[in-house]
Amino acid sequence: MQRRNNAMSKKLEQPTQTLKTPRGRRPNGNGLSSTTIMDVAREAGVSYATVSRVVNNKEYVKSDTRERVLKAITSLGYVVNQQARSLAGGRSYAVGLLVRDLGSSYMGEIVRGIDESLSAAQYNLMLYTTHRRKIKERIYVNNLIQGMTDGLLLVLPENLEAYLETLDQTNFPYVLIDHQGLDERTPVVITTNWQGGYDATRYLIELGHRRIGFLTGMMDMRSSQDRLSGYQAALRDHGLPADPQLVYEGTYYQPEGYAGAQSLLRLPEPPTAIFASNDVMAFGVMEAVRDAGLRIPSDISVIGFDDIAQASQVAPPLTTVAQPLEQLGREAVRMLLARINNPEQPIARTILPTTLIIRQSCDVPRNV
Amino acid sequence: MQRRNNAMSKKLEQPTQTLKTPRGRRPNGNGLSSTTIMDVAREAGVSYATVSRVVNNKEYVKSDTRERVLKAITSLGYVVNQQARSLAGGRSYAVGLLVRDLGSSYMGEIVRGIDESLSAAQYNLMLYTTHRRKIKERIYVNNLIQGMTDGLLLVLPENLEAYLETLDQTNFPYVLIDHQGLDERTPVVITTNWQGGYDATRYLIELGHRRIGFLTGMMDMRSSQDRLSGYQAALRDHGLPADPQLVYEGTYYQPEGYAGAQSLLRLPEPPTAIFASNDVMAFGVMEAVRDAGLRIPSDISVIGFDDIAQASQVAPPLTTVAQPLEQLGREAVRMLLARINNPEQPIARTILPTTLIIRQSCDVPRNV
DNA sequence: ATGAAAGCGCTAACAA
DNA sequence: TTGTTAGCGCTTTCAT
């Protein structure tokens, strides 16, 4: 090791009072000149490395030293400076969350799961909303992995191809939520969409329905395709024909539920039940049915998908396939933190079960 | 000026190859060893202070130097490290956003306004959701002002008393959204709730209604009180009695719209119109009215407040008082950034106008 | 107009 | 088990 300048000289040269504005640091903008690890060290009578050890729960600290440091921390109201910590090579204790939009209960519930788990782990959340502008996804992702966050959560990403490779190459931790990923090696948390579609359809068939209308979601989403396949499989398994006229292509928004139902009801041989690929469209269906002068469930049965909070509040309460949305968020965080804490962690795919929730919007068909 | 150690010696002593793991820094976790200001400086043949000047758009940089640096930045794909910047006394370029929940269109629209403005200003957003647990508000606020963010946005805070003083004392920039604040010196962005309540009521009166039911929001919120006052003032101004039986106390959730309407319709002398303090309750009202076998608007007129996206999508489309929610968010960001950029900025209160949106849920009363 | 250097608060390697 | 120190990448002052 070569000889370096003696750092001690710095301290010795220090005038008692700082006469000039110190270089670099501007005088903190807001008043609050926060307590640092140094203040704590002084208070506890230890070196500041020891304080760091205590703060980071490292081993090799005598328990009474730890005690003393902890006390100093409390009495001084010390809070670590995340930026410094992160700059020094530690964690940033923040994860990025990339979503399309926030106005729906669907997103609300997922985000609730995410931020509850995250705050339990003392992590911060950086939010990025793309508003469906695909370019933004890539820009955000590039910023995010630039040291700002320790990991990334992507809900229903639309432009994966543009950055998944970068993410994988740099081994940056991430988890997709409600998206199948590009292949089996992508870490994802998804639900049993096919089974949900199957279960709802079978339920209607078992009630006696023979003509069941189906409203799809956006068909470029794998989940939408799976729900449709589940519906078709249930029909097939019960020997019912798959009449393409009964399938209406929607995009998960309420007005399409209304329009879809209208279109199905105008069919020469209309369905006796309508299965909408999400609750929001089911609400549109309910309106259209009522506006057509029909009653739910006596004239027409309606079933949804998601089980958002509103589903139990409409009249009649909506029978639907519950997705464990909040759990989806919690599970994603669990997986992400596992990868952050251990980059060697093998990649997992978590599949959570959907559940048929029977309420009052379905009944046996009229003429049975 | 006292003589300091010659920093140049550092460089001269540097062995050609680093033989040991450098202290402090762990080898970056993920592969990506990002380009720094130093790399750019070397590439452009300037000192790294100059690069900093260029990046921060400071004056005193010859334009061809600037040119050269910019080119180096592009060719190297350099992105500033926010943590380092913030640690060195600059901005963190992040603002904190504290909300109750995210599942509603109300919040969705406000947040959209916020994050569009923020991303236009190259700011990041740290999200904190309280889920209505008041203790969390204070904890979050304390963390947030600890250097993590440059400012704070609070939507409908519930526990202001616990930290507003801290915020003011440290002169930390913040803006309240849709909340009146503790006094006139609190920076807020609000809407004309009283006027909105007045306008909607006057509209119904002018249609010929004499008995108008009113569903309040949570009465501990000033906005709810104002809407109610506006309603009462309109009645008074038009010589109508303020029958307390016609006022039902709700809490802004849909089931209370349903229950409230049921209760009003059961009155010996039921109203011919119902004014709900938000759209979500108005949807509940619409259901209850229909379930009572009445038609909208021929039997009963219904009017809401907020003008969330769904309001135009239900049948019949809901007449309502529009709040410029997205603009609320944009305006709050504008005010916040102004204060961040100039702490001397006088405190402003912004009041945005509500607008009556006439759709098809109101008509003249039956017996007129 | 540019460069030199201090130091923001912290983590982790190394020494003791 | 604890202390010492380098250095993370940057902003800003001072000197030139």
From TrEMBL, chains A, B:
It comes from the Bacteria. SMART domains: HTH_LACI (SM00354). GO terms for molecular function: alanine racemase activity; DNA-binding transcription factor activity; transcription cis-regulatory region binding. SUPFAM superfamilies: lambda repressor-like DNA-binding domains (SSF47413), Periplasmic binding protein-like I (SSF53822). It is an enzyme of class 5 (isomerase). Its EC number is 5.1.1.1. The keyword Transcription applies. Residues 35-89 form the HTH lacI-type domain. Residues 1-20 have a biased composition (Polar residues). The keyword Cell membrane does not apply. Signal peptide: none annotated. It holds the Pfam family Peripla_BP_3. Keywords: DNA-binding, Isomerase, Transcription, Transcription regulation. This is Transcriptional regulator, LacI family. Residues 1-34 are annotated as: Disordered.
